[in-house]
Amino acid sequence: MFSNVQPRQAAAQLLNFGLILSTAFMMWKGLSVITDSPSPIVVVLSGSMEPAFQRGDLLFLTNRNILQETDVGEIVVYNVKDKDIPIVHRIVRKFGSGAGAKFLTKGDNNVADDTELFPPGKAFLDRTDMIGSVVGYIPFVGYVTIMLSEHPWLKTVMLAIMGLVVVLQRE
């Protein structure tokens, strides 16, 4: 099976695979710079924002300058310290204005606000806690990410398939 693969062809295929990975990384970093967000694209992982967003929706974010106003009703994504998963919720209350503003968030489908999610002793979010504001979405496209995180063996299968495609590809 592999006897027909010349060393030069194998090297070219390996370089093509590396080019694909580096291009994807550069696109991600480019989006990060353009949107001023460390994570310009996120996937909704729970049903806490239904009916606005469903589990598996792919969200596009932008992180406006800290000095620009963030208003009640805006859907934001924020990180809580010691938790790896960003949270997508709506701002329901705002205290103050400008860089010193404080925010209270809540999922549309949740009964209570997010104070239980915040670190101990913290009752509100600062603008600096926010990764970005939602500016658009594509429904259900993120289900691939959910499936890969819920079934780790799928990652191995996908990588094996990608590797086989690279090896078996003829130019």
Write the CATH fold name.
Umud Fragment, subunit A
The radius of gyration computed from the alpha-carbon positions, rounded to a whole number of angstroms, is 21 Å
Q: DSSP helix count?
A: 3
- Determine the CATH superfamily: Umud Fragment, subunit A
**How much β-strand is present in the residues?**
15-25%
Would you state the CATH class? Mainly Beta
Count up the domains.
1
| pLDDT < 50 runs, ≥5 residues | none
CATH architecture group name: Ribbon
Got a strand count?
7
Order of helices and strands: HEEEEEEEHH
Please state the average pLDDT score.
Answer: 85
Helix content range? 25-40%
GO cellular component, one term: signal peptidase complex
Family: Belongs to the peptidase S26B family.
Subcellular location: Endoplasmic reticulum membrane
Catalytic activity: Cleavage of hydrophobic, N-terminal signal or leader sequences from secreted and periplasmic proteins
